[in-house]
């Protein structure tokens, strides 16, 4: 079991557990430098990130805003900026948390774009959705929401000559818990390799409000199950996923679910198949 866990952890470049505050500080600064290098190498000046209200986008936003502030200070170039985007489908289930995240991050710019009309138009135009069960239709449109959000973020990034930030980390990557070419599409992923608890730890490093840090994670893509916890979708907990990625013992059921899901979703973590 542990050999399989080690192999998967290596594939996902899982970051070693933080030993102390010094290690956390070093990792935060390494990732901030990574963000800055991405911008410098691209020749662009803006970062765009969708803020959902969860700890992942909160943490990515805090890293991005600090990276941008340092770039402005160190270069004297005031054109660097971080743009946070709220992308609700009509009224978001956790609207309060999303707004609280934006308020705490204090981005240089903040936009709110309701994706509801676009998703509904798509649903009405796509004949393949007709005749599907309510549950099946709801699931399909959940992925559509994620892809419309991606398109919106890239539209904003293009308008501002910027890059799109993703929020994927190791605990989601191992479960394939992202929409292919939706929230899985980005130019840089500053949380990559972190387990869920490490994402929370970095949020605490920035003194983020504890209710946001410990908020129950949810993709909130399904209208019929608003705020559905990620762990319900997984069938395992984030604590079990983190332990698995660290090579620690997990129960047989959790081990099987994580491994089966990892291999089943492999296509999401690779480039498109080609002959």
UniProtKB/TrEMBL annotation:
The keyword DNA repair does not apply. It holds the Pfam family NAD_synthase. Deamido-NAD(+) binds at residues 147, 180, 187, 267-268. ATP binds at residues 50-57, 167, 196, 218. Its EC number is 6.3.1.5. Mg(2+) binds at residues 56, 172. InterPro entries: NAD/GMP_synthase, NAD_synthase, NH(3)-dep_NAD(+)_synth, Rossmann-like_a/b/a_fold. Signal peptide: none annotated. It catalyses: deamido-NAD(+) + NH4(+) + ATP = AMP + diphosphate + NAD(+) + H(+). Residues 28-272 form the NAD/GMP synthase domain. It is an enzyme of class 6 (ligase). The keyword DNA repair does not apply. GO terms for molecular function: NAD+ synthase activity. Keywords: ATP-binding, Ligase, Magnesium, Metal-binding, NAD, Nucleotide-binding. Pathway: Cofactor biosynthesis; NAD(+) biosynthesis; NAD(+) from deamido-NAD(+) (ammonia route): step 1/1. Belongs to the NAD synthetase family. HAMAP family: NadE_ammonia_dep. Homodimer. Catalyzes the ATP-dependent amidation of deamido-NAD to form NAD. Uses ammonia as a nitrogen source. This is NH(3)-dependent NAD(+) synthetase.
């Amino acid at each position: 079991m542990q050999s399989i866990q080690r192999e998967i952890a290596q594939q996902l470049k899982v970051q070693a557990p933080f030993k102390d505050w010094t290690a956390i500080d070093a990792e935060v600064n390494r990732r901030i430098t990574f963000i800055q290098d991405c911008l410098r190498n691209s020749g662009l000046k803006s970062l765009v990130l969708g803020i959902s209200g969860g700890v992942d986008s909160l943490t990515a936003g805090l890293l991005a805003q600090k990276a941008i502030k340092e770039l402005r200070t160190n270069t004297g170039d005031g054109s660097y900026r971080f743009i946070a985007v709220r992308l609700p489908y009509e009224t978001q289930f956790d609207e309060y948390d999303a707004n609280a995240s934006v308020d705490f991050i204090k981005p240089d710019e903040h936009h709110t774009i309701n994706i509801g009309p676009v998703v509904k138009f798509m649903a009405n135009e796509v004949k393949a959705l007709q005749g599907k069960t309510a549950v099946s239709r709801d699931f399909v449109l959940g992925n559509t929401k994620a892809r419309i959000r991606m398109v919106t973020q890239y539209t904003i990034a293009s308008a501002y000559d910027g890059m799109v930030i993703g929020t994927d980390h190791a605990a989601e990557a191992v479960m394939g818990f992202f929409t292919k070419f939706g929230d899985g599409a980005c130019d840089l992923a500053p949380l990559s390799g972190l387990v869920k608890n490490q994402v929370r730890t970095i949020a605490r490093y920035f003194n983020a409000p504890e209710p946001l840090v410990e908020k129950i994670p949810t993709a909130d893509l399904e209208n019929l199950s608003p705020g559905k916890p990620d762990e319900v979708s997984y069938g395992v907990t984030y604590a079990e996923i983190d332990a698995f990625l660290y090579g620690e013992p997990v129960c047989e059921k959790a081990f099987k679910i994580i491994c089966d899901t990892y291999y089943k979703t492999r296509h999401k973590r690779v480039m498109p198949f080609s002959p």
